[in-house]
Automatic annotation (TrEMBL):
HAMAP family: Pal (MF_02204). It is found in: Cell outer membrane. The gene is pal. This is Peptidoglycan-associated lipoprotein. It comes from the Bacteria. SUPFAM superfamilies: OmpA-like (SSF103088). It comes from Rhodoferax koreensis. The Tol-Pal system is composed of five core proteins: the inner membrane proteins TolA, TolQ and TolR, the periplasmic protein TolB and the outer membrane protein Pal. They form a network linking the inner and outer membranes and the peptidoglycan layer.
């Protein structure tokens, strides 16, 4: 009787694992980028390009943001904004309030000490501290996003204190 129940349960398990999807019947689509025929992108006779030129110099100039700086530095194992970096936050807040269509990303960074998860969490707290400071100064919450890179994008390589101090930062970038 035990063998019969065991065989029945194994049959039920195998039947439950069966799938009705036929993997061999998936259609093949050619995405190689070759011409698509008459009237398509690669058709003969279409000499005029639909691509318009972009002036990157004007875009980069407007993407720069305020000239007073975009980096806020932090002490070791801290996410408190230092009083000497408050001027940077003030200038960026004035810029964002004056340009309400602009959006900014605050990227939190750490030095190389600490584990990966710890550094990601600390970088997030640093970026959130700067974002919160900006919103307290009147910047719309929808204009600022906070992200963390942890120790993945160091500003300075090296294991001395000066290099690590440059890596403990939050950078404000504009989009």
């Amino acid at each position: 009787m035990k063998r019969f129940v065991w065989a029945l349960s194994m049959t039920a398990v195998l039947a439950g694992c069966a799938s009705g999807v036929k993997l061999d019947d998936v259609p093949v689509v050619d995405k190689s980028g070759t011409s698509v025929g008459a009237g398509g992108a690669g058709a003969a006779g279409s000499t005029q390009s639909a691509v318009t030129s972009v002036d990157l110099s004007a875009q980069n100039q407007s993407a720069a943001g305020p000239n007073s700086g975009r980096i806020v530095y932090f002490d070791f194992d801290s996410y408190s904004v230092r009083p000497d970096d408050q001027a940077v936050i003030d200038a960026n807040a004035r810029y964002l309030k004056a340009n309400s269509a602009r959006k900014a990303v605050v990227e939190g960074h750490t030095d190389e000490r600490g584990g990966r998860e710890y550094n990601l969490a600390l970088g997030q707290k640093r970026s959130e501290a700067v974002r919160r400071s900006l919103t307290l100064l009147g910047v719309s919450d929808a204009q600022v996003e906070a992200v963390s890179f942890g120790k993945e994008k160091p500003a300075a390589t090296g294991s001395d204190e000066a290099s690590m101090a440059k890596n403990r930062r939050a950078e404000i970038t504009y989009r």
